[in-house]
Amino acid sequence: MSSARRRNSRERCRERDGTHGYGCPGMARRGDQHDNDLEGPATRRVPAVDLLGTEPADGAGPDPGRHSPLRYRVLPRSLLGLTALILSFAIGAGLSGVVLYSYYQYKLNQTNDRVNTVITGYKKQFANAEGDLQASAAAAKADIQAQLGPIQALEASPATLAKLAKQLAPSLFFVHTLDANGQASVGTAFVVSSNSTQSLLLTSYTTVAAATRSPAPPVYVQRGQTSTAVHVRTWDQTYDLALIVLPQGNLPVISAAPSTPAPEVGERVYAVSGLGSAGAALSQGLITDVSADGVEHDAPLGAAYQGGPLVNDAGQVIAVGSRSYAPLGFSTDSVWYAPYVQAACNKVLSCPGGNLSGSQ
């Protein structure tokens, strides 16, 4: 090769390697040439490169003829590349979050659907059970009403009670006096006979018992706010009957029920008191027994009712209400014995023909 061609070759080698051309043929340094002469044929010296990929110690840079380190092949070497890599990671993370949230929402919707199905089924079951209960309650009410029908037929209507109270009130008086211990004693009296000057009232002996002895406490009969003094004429302790005289005439009389037909067991009766806002108060019950001594009934009988009339649906007197009359020799609880009103004709009152007629 001519010297000109060798010189051009060395120039091109220097331009390609970016060095001083020491690695090019014929361009060895003088110190190296001496070493080459000692060691033998000329060899090419390559700059050292760090195994971790760091730059050569002499700052010559990586040899383009050798493989680049791993981090140069995997990681970008510029700011734009790093930005792109970070953006790629961010997009990947966002997509992963979207996928996870979508899965969570899917499972949540499934759970909500199951819960709604259970709730809907429960509501239907509750509605069906409620309907069954209402139907059962209605059937039970109807059954009870059917069974109470006969009993209700025995009970008087409010209109019947009001009618009887209005009918009987003019013949009733509230009686008040004192007993043997000086305590209040009360009851009811009703007119059995009346003329132009005075009236005879039948009441309970128990109410006026203290007035049958001397010294006797005063006895009064009251209607509304007016009290009138009366005196006891006759009495019968056994039948719990007493007759008092009221100095007031022309009063209506409560008629006695006919002796035929006789009262029957199960017949409705009313105990009447002269104490009430309408001038009379009634409690109803049934006759539970009939005997020669009187009638047994379950009409409630308070203290103010004793001595009052026991009447039928027509307002006629059947017997006299008593809390003390005990033909069997003992008292009973919530069931009372009442002597027939006609017994007054034999015990305390003189009745023409033996029957209570309403006149003296």
CATH class label of the largest domain: Mainly Beta
Q: What strand order characterises the main sheet?
A: 1-2-3-6-5-4
Overall number of domains: 3
Main sheet, how many strands, which sense, barrel?
A: 6 strands, antiparallel, barrel
- The helix-and-strand class reads alpha+beta
- Please tell me how large the radius of gyration is: 64 Å
Distance between the termini: 185 Å
**Which of globular, elongated, flat, extended, rod-shaped describes the shape?**
rod-shaped
How many alpha or pi helices? Answer: 7
CATH topology of the largest domain: Thrombin, subunit H
Count of DSSP strands: 12
Second-tier CATH architecture of the largest domain: Beta Barrel
Overall pLDDT metric: 81
Order of helices and strands: HHHHHEEEHEEEEEEEEEH
Given as residue ranges, the uncertain stretches (5+ residues, pLDDT < 50) are 34-40, 49-54
Word description of this protein:
With 360 residues, this protein is of the alpha+beta class. The chain has 3 domains: 3-74, no CATH class; 76-154; 161-354, Beta Barrel (Thrombin, subunit H). 35% of the residues lie in helices and 21% in strands. The chain has helices at residues 3-17, 30-39, 70-74, 79-154, 158-168, 205-208, 343-347, and strands spanning 172-178, 184-194, 199-203, 219-223, 226-236, 241-246, 268-273, 281-291, 294-297, 309-311, 317-320, 336-338. It is rod-shaped, with a radius of gyration of 64 Å.
